[in-house]
Specification:
alpha+beta, Thiol Ester Dehydrase, Chain A, 282 residues
Length: 282
């Protein structure tokens, strides 16, 4: 995890700051979208005053990334106002953009305060099986990667849809997650790690609604765009609840929305993602 979220300064151009970061191996040999989004967020953070914190990002996944190559990030310092700063980050491999993101930062200001309530009756994460427990015995490279190599412990509240559809065709689910190892006391690192985790499972409500699984023959899925809003700070090495739903799917695309809560019910972030979801004869 920390290896992926380590950036190296390389050079400066007229209006852009340049960074590089490694890619983590995946069985599909494509860079995980959450990884490149988190790195893009970190790159933008490096160019903003320390008293301003990211509160939103909007990104487009343009091309699949190659996990055998590092990624170059260019950050354009678009604007610095009295309270807000805006940055545009482009991620490149082989001179081609693979992600384009714009992010906004704000200093700490007083203001109105309210939030939606975390769903009631959610089982404690300690009562639920981990992906390692479910997938560890499965002799398949993807199952072994999800069980042992991902930097997050994921625990589905409903039955996971790795191999079998859920008992009901519903377009919602909830997942507990936290990093598998403690993170340093760097608030920006935790915010970037939250962006990393936000790409996990977010499209699963679309599959769940249609009785599909990750093992459905011919399934093709890819993240198209990703939006995220950070509301309040929380450590990502403590358990967080990711409540997800899909309001619509059509034309080979599906939209999912998510809210992330701390264990005691504080709303930390909101997420929206549209993805390509194609199932043969669907």
């Amino acid at each position: 995890m920390l290896a992926a979220l380590t950036l190296t300064d390389t050079e400066a151009r007229t209006r852009e700051d340049i960074f590089t970061a490694p890619s983590l191996w995946t069985p599909q040999r494509r860079v995980f979208g959450g990884q490149v989004a988190a790195q893009a967020v970190l790159a933008a953070m490096r160019t903003v005053d320390a008293d301003r914190f990211i509160h939103s990002m909007h990104g487009y996944f343009l091309r699949p990334g190659d996990d055998e190559q590092p990624i170059t990030f260019s950050v354009d310092r678009i604007h610095d106002g009295r309270s807000f700063s805006t940055r545009r980050t482009q991620a490149y491999q082989n001179g081609q953009p693979i992600l384009s993101m714009i992010a906004s930062f704000q200093d700490v200001d007083p203001g109105l305060e309210h939030q939606t309530t975390m769903p009631a009756g959610i089982p404690d994460p300690d009562e639920l099986p981990s992906a390692r427990e479910i997938l560890g015995p499965i002799d398949h490279p993807v199952a072994q990667y999800w069980a042992h190599s991902r930097p997050f412990d994921l625990r589905h509240v409903e039955d996971p849809i790795y191999f079998a559809p859920g008992p009901e065709a519903v377009a919602h689910q909830a997942v507990w997650f936290r990093t598998t190892a403690p993170l340093p006391d760097d608030e920006n690192l935790h915010r970037a790690a939250l962006a990393y985790a936000s790409d996990y499972t977010i499209l699963e409500p679309i599959l769940r609604r249609h009785g599909a699984t990750w093992a459905t023959p011919g399934l093709k899925m890819a993240s198209l765009d990703h939006a995220m809003w950070w509301h309040r700070f929380a450590r990502v090495d403590d358990w967080l609840l990711y409540v997800q739903e899909s309001p619509t799917a059509q034309g080979g695309r599906g939209l999912s929305q998510g809210r992330i809560f701390t264990r005691d019910g504080m709303l930390v972030a909101s997420v929206a993602q549209e993805g390509m979801v194609r199932i043969p004869e669907a």
